[in-house]
Each structure stands twice: as C-alpha cells, then as structure tokens.
Amino acid sequence: MAAQTLYDKLWQSHVVSQSDDGTCLIYIDRHLVHEVTSPQAFEGLRLANRTPWRVDSVVATADHNTPTDHWELGIQDPISRQQVETLDSNIKHFGAKAYFPFKDLRQGIVHVVGPENGATLPGMTVVCGDSHTSTHGAFAALAHGIGTSEVEHVLATQTLTAKKSKAMLIKVEGELGQGVTGKDVALAIIGEIGTAGGTGYAVEFGGSAIRSLSMEGRMTLCNMVIEAGARAGMVAVDDKTVEYLKDRPFSPKAEQWDAAVAYWKTLVSDEGATFDKVVELDASKIEPQVTWGTSPEQVTTVGGKVPNPAQLEDPVKRASLERALSYMGLQADTPIEQIQIDKVFIGSCTNSRIEDLRAAAAVAKGRQKAANVKLAMVVPGSGLVKQQAEAEGLDKIFVAAGFEWREPGCSMCLAMNADRLEPGERCASTSNRNFEGRQGQGGRTHLVSPEMAAAAAIAGHFVDVRTFA
Amino acid sequence: MKAFTQVDGLVCPLDRANVDTDAIIPKQFLKSIKRSGFGPNLFDEWRYLDHGEPGMDNSQRPLNPDFVLNQPRYKGAQVLLARDNFGCGSSREHAPWALEDYGFRAVIAPSFADIFFNNCYKNGVLPIVLPEAAVDQLFAETAAADGYTLHIDLAAQTVTTPSGAVFGFDITGHRKHCMLNGLDEIGLTLQHADEIKAFEAKHKQAQPWLFG
C-alpha cells in the first residue's frame, strides 16, 4: 500500500460513503457544543421532529457568554443569560455524554475542556461550531470548525458531507530559543504563509521543534492554524500524546487502554508519504512575535518596527496597510518596543492552560503592573486550570503584581461578555485574532505569547521577554 | 433553504481583502437564539456611526455615509463583489444568515475562507470564485456604471455581464444539486442511514473506546 499521511489515515478511517463528484459522508466521533452556535441547530431538530443520532458523542459547555467575575450574581446580561439557559434546556431535553454548565468546576472554554477531560482522543474526528476546533488536532485527531447547519447535520446524522482537502506539511526543525513559545511559532508561520496560505489544506506540523513542544504548546499551534486559513491542523502521536491522555476522565480504561495506545501509535505519516505542499521553517530563527495590524499575518518580531506603507508599490496593498495603521493608531517605522499599552488579556482557547499561566506568572512574580496599564486580566481556560493554578499559588503572584484573577471563559478574546476594550484602547493579548472590533468596537489588539503579555503589563509597553530583567 | 436557479442582481462592491466574519456580523448579535433578523446588523461597525447592540431600533441609528452599502446607488443589491479570503475567521453561520437576510443571493470573490464558503451553500447564498483578473474587471465595471447588474445562472455555472461577457465557475455536483433544489441536506443524508449504521458498527468494533 502506498505511504499515507496522517491526514490520509484519519480521513480514510471515517469515510462512510463517497459519491461520484468526490463528496464523502464522514463519520463524526466527538461533537463539542457551546451555547452560541447550537441553539438554532437544536431548534432545527425540534422543528423537523428529529432526535440526535448518538448523544454519547456530545460534550457541551457554556463559555462565550459567561462572566469572569461575580459569579454569585449570575449572568447579568439578559440575552447572554437566555443563550446559556437555552443550552441548559437543550442538553436536558436531548442529552449528552457530559455537560459542564456555568459555574460547574469542569466548565471552561470548550477547547480547553475537551482535551483535559480526555474527550479528545487520537484518531477521532472532532467537530464543533467554532473555528478554533482545530486545537484538538494536537492529538492526531481530524478536528475542525463547522457552521450551525452542520452542527444540526452532525446531531441528526453523526456525519458531515465533505470533500477531502489537500495536505500540507509545515516542518519546523531545530531548537526554539528560550522565551520562544508555540504561540510565536504559530504567528511566525502565519507571517510566512499568510492568512489564506492554508486555505484548502489540512496541515500537519512536523519536525524536531514541534516534537519538542508540550501537548499544550501543540494545542496552541493547532489552534491558530485557522488563522492561516486551514480548517484543520494536526500533530502525529508520540509518547507525549499518550502520557497526556493517561488517566483522564474519558480516556480509555483498563484493557481498552492498551488496545487504544497500540492503534494511536500508528497515527503518524508514513515514511515517504507525499504532501501537496511543504513549508519549512528554521526554529532557531524564530523570535518572540508581536502583531501590529488587523490581521494575524500582520506580525513582526519584538525587535522589529511597524512597517512603512510608502515602501509598498502595489496601491491595493499600500491602501490596506494604511487602513490597518490608521485603525491601530500607529505611525510607520515605530519600534514595536515603543508601543505603549492600556490593557493586557491573558486567556483564550489559544493560551489559557496551566503552562501558559505558569509562564506568565514567572514573569510577573515579584513585579508590579505599570501605572499606564489600566487592567491586566488573567482568565484561566477552565475551572480545573483555575483550581490547579491556585494550588500552585499562581493567583497570588498575579494579584500581588496588580493583575486581576478571573473566572474561566472565553472572555475578552471576543468580548461577548462584559470583558472588552473601549474604543481606542490598546491591548497586549494572548488570544488569536486582532481583527477590527474583535475585542470591542474600536479596540486595538496586539497578539503575543503569555510571557510577552505579562512582560508588557509590567513594562507598560512591549518588551523582549528574553532580556527582560 | 431558498432554491437558487438564476439571479439578475444589482452588484455592490466591497473593495477590501480579508473581510472577516467578525466584520460581517459582530459578536454582540450572536447572542440571538434565532436564525433570522441579522440583516439590519450586517457589517454593523462599518455601516453605522454609533455602537450597535441587539434590540436597538436600527432605523434610528446614524448611518456611515462613506460605507458602500449606504450609498443610494447600491440599494437593493443582491450580489456582493469582494476581494481575497472573504469570510475568514470565526465559523459563525450568522455571517451568511446576515447576508441572506439583507438580500444578498451571491458573493463573488477571487477566494473565500473554507468554513464561510461551506456555510453559504447551506443558506441559499451562492459563493462564486472567479479569477482575480475577472474580479478586477467587475470592480471596474461596477464603479463605471450606475445600476450595474450581473446575471447568474447556477445550472449553466455562469456569470454574465451587461455587455455579454461570460465567466464560468466551479461547484461540486452535490452542492449544485442541493442549491438548485433548495434541499434539506439532512434529509438527503438520512437516505444513507443504513450505511451510517453499518459503518458505525464496524467502527465500534475496531475502536470500542470511542463509544459509551
């Protein structure tokens, strides 16, 4: 048999049927559900008098609308509350393998909750009405975001109709420098291939730098592959994958564990497998990254400068750059380290796991937030992450440094709850999108790693975390 | 879903690349638990001068006269002409819901983001990929002539300009069939229920840990 890529194996093992034009029915193993993109899907089932095909595939939580402080007051915004209560009642009515509602200890961002509970396993197809479902590909799962019509389709049929994507290998060889994280690798890749560079592809990340990343670092990387246009990113199974999954609540148990691990170890690209496209990066050349514009591809190194539109010949690109700088309130050629910030957000499905919080706390420890920083908030990705961080005393480090320690949720990544930027405010954010208005209308977002965000909070402006003393 | 056969539609040009779904429909409107009513908030932050929230009377809000959708010549547009990577970012299906609710039946661009592209087909909004040169030409012609319309014929897979120039476009057979007939895709898939059950039984035998 011809050498297969990991993607070939994941795809082939889920094809239920294939029609003449290449459209396939793909079986879905895990369906993650949150409150924002599911109500219309459940309503659709109800109207058509249909029932879910397999409720034990559904794992649900409320994350986008939940507040990050004063949980004793409940959800103050009535329409946010209605959306969360709608999920409560839909799960009650239709059922699920697990539901982590608002205030539950295991509630949190769906892409943090899935892996930490062992609800994401190698070899699975994983979908969710959320573009950052690509996160779960870190476990050698075929994982991608879907729209609400597809949420309803998966609920009703346990399948999706899809055509196979092309395969891309992004190979990062060498050693990452101290202070250079999975987030920096992700941003450097997006800077290299562009925000549409992965469109139409399923991406596998490989190379020694990827293997050296922890599972959490790999999740950060796969999480952001959608910002390069690829719906799905994935990393082959290795010992770290298996180690991470051992003894998680929904991981296979007893005799099934050994059988599962034996199968999972086959989930690597075969020697000699061919990809439609290969991109190579040298890990040793990747430096801490900071975005300066309104698209994740508008990124440079912390030692870099805001680009100058006058240097662009193409009038369309020049106009687009001028528009981004105008929105961001930045002058051409400004050194990144001279950009002052107003707020800091450490959180999101990209960077809110325990290692992220440890890294940020190590920078903040014994220091003080700069006076010009109005708010530095730390939002753990889940109740379990929060509990672990508190057991390690990270909350106290943050609070002593003048940061706010919050309850878990999506929070200011997309500002659907009360956490948001005011017009003109500038934020160092560990989230994934610097789009206009993403963190609040008129807000200005710079994407960075947790270490870099914490350092910016202390300095009051961007600073190279590698030399920050 | 509304069937799509042919459309003769006024064209509205949106001349910027990487238009993301946060721009198409901002997050505060995603709190709705309905599928309809998003049209007045399509491109909300670009279209109005104030900050929009759900429940506002949009007819009373100050319009941004510089935004293309607010220009009288594009009132009633059914075809949105766009640039590369249209619909990138969030998977929110509220984006095609908002376009459809506003009255758009088709979006023409040199490229689309994958999830948005897929979501359009589920809602009777036809996303059409044309080569960059063709899109450039359509932008120029739209700017040059008031009331510029395009004729889109899904069965023939063509876009025809007022002067008779014809551009062909690709679509998979499955999507075309669903769009032309306004079909409920779930109903179609459930015709394969026996195959799904057979696959599931085999899958469960091979990987029992995925079940239960």
TrEMBL record, chain A:
Pfam families: Aconitase (PF00330). PROSITE patterns: ACONITASE_1 (PS00450), ACONITASE_2 (PS01244). [4Fe-4S] cluster binds at C349, C410, C413. GO terms for biological process: L-leucine biosynthetic process. It catalyses: (2R,3S)-3-isopropylmalate = (2S)-2-isopropylmalate. Transmembrane segments: none annotated. The keyword Nucleus does not apply. PANTHER family: 3-ISOPROPYLMALATE DEHYDRATASE (PTHR43822:SF9), HOMOACONITASE, MITOCHONDRIAL-RELATED (PTHR43822). HAMAP family: LeuC_type1. This is 3-isopropylmalate dehydratase large subunit. It comes from Amantichitinum ursilacus.
Automatic annotation (TrEMBL), chain B:
InterPro entries: 3-IsopropMal_deHydase_ssu (IPR004431), Aconitase/3IPM_dehydase_swvl (IPR015928), AconitaseA/IPMdHydase_ssu_swvl (IPR000573), IPMI_Swivel (IPR033940), LeuD (IPR050075). GO terms for cellular component: 3-isopropylmalate dehydratase complex. It catalyses: (2R,3S)-3-isopropylmalate = (2S)-2-isopropylmalate. Catalyzes the isomerization between 2-isopropylmalate and 3-isopropylmalate, via the formation of 2-isopropylmaleate. Belongs to the LeuD family. LeuD type 1 subfamily. PANTHER family: 3-ISOPROPYLMALATE DEHYDRATASE SMALL SUBUNIT (PTHR43345:SF5), 3-ISOPROPYLMALATE DEHYDRATASE SMALL SUBUNIT 2-RELATED-RELATED (PTHR43345). Heterodimer of LeuC and LeuD. This is 3-isopropylmalate dehydratase small subunit.
